[in-house]
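Thread amino acids onto this structure.
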């Protein structure tokens, strides 16, 4: 069955850095696909804020995911040394090639970035850089996997600036003891200091999404914030703790199959950590989870 277009462009032409986006859509026969989470950003000031948050210099190699009509691309290429713009939807590529195909510092790639190692893409298109950054207006459905695709890459990206659903942004910056605090908060802090730069109303997009958005900045670090932290083990312990969020650590950790430890070993690790096993996981700070994950790692090693 043929999928009907989800939404056509608005009657009034939105402008982006002198571009008539409506005319571009009409010229290239572009419609926005709900299945790919595509929306047209009407306010080019948001693109300006994103570029400013990235603190770009001519030495920066930048990756953009979801280039779309090229409104953000046009701003990025003026500030970055080299820019790799990635777009999954082939219908946007003629528009992008016509705008940027002759620009020596812009490299276009059509594909799903999650299906490619970033090291391979960087080596092919923007090799040899000393500083890599990512700036993207992301489809919401790939936000979390894409963030970790970049943070866990063997290529170090010093800064990520991403437009995302505001609810996800709030979870990323949540404080201990709040309802938003959880796995995403803690695992992202293994890799970066995170802050919300700007909130973006749903009215800034066509089709209008059901939720507001925000621009989130990740100041990434090469080393974990706690010396010697085993990031995969930390993530394993955090996921085990939050699998049953309403339960105490005693109950959630001892009942989790993730840790591959018997009940007594888990309780011993909790006792050694000095963390009250009757606490709930959302009350623990990052450092407490780091201490606990190191002790559970030791317990696993001793059982082997």
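Threaded sequence (304 positions):
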């Amino acid at each position: 069955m043929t999928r009907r277009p989800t939404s056509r462009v608005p009657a009034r032409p939105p402008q982006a850095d002198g571009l008539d986006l409506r005319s571009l859509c009409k010229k290239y026969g572009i419609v926005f696909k709900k299945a790919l989470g595509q929306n047209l950003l009407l306010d080019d000031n948001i693109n300006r804020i994103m570029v400013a948050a990235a603190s770009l210099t001519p030495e920066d190699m930048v990756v953009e995911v979801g280039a779309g009509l090229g409104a953000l691309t046009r701003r990025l290429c003026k500030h970055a040394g080299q820019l790799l713009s990635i777009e999954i939807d082939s219908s946007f590529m003629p528009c992008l090639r016509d705008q940027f195909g002759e620009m020596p510092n812009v490299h276009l790639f059509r594909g799903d970035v999650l299906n490619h190692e970033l090291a391979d893409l960087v080596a092919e298109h923007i090799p040899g850089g000393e500083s890599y950054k990512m700036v993207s207006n992301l489809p919401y459905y790939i936000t979390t996997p894409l963030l970790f695709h970049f943070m866990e890459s063997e290529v170090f990206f010093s800064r990520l600036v991403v437009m995302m659903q505001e609810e996800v942004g709030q979870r990323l910056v949540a404080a201990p003891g709040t309802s938003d605090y959880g796995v995403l908060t803690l695992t992202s802090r293994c890799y970066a200091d995170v802050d919300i730069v700007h909130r973006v109303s749903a009215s800034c997009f066509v089709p209008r999404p059901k939720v507001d958005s925000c621009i989130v900045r990740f100041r990434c670090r090469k080393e974990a914030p706690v010396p010697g932290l085993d990031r995969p083990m930390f993530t394993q312990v955090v996921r085990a703790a939050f699998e049953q969020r309403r339960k105490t650590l005693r109950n959630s950790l001892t009942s989790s199959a993730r840790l591959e430890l018997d009940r007594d070993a888990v309780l011993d690790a909790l006792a050694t950590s000095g963390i009250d096993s009757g606490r709930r996981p959302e009350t623990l700070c990052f450092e407490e989870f780091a201490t606990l994950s190191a002790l559970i790692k030791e317990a696993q090693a001793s059982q082997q």
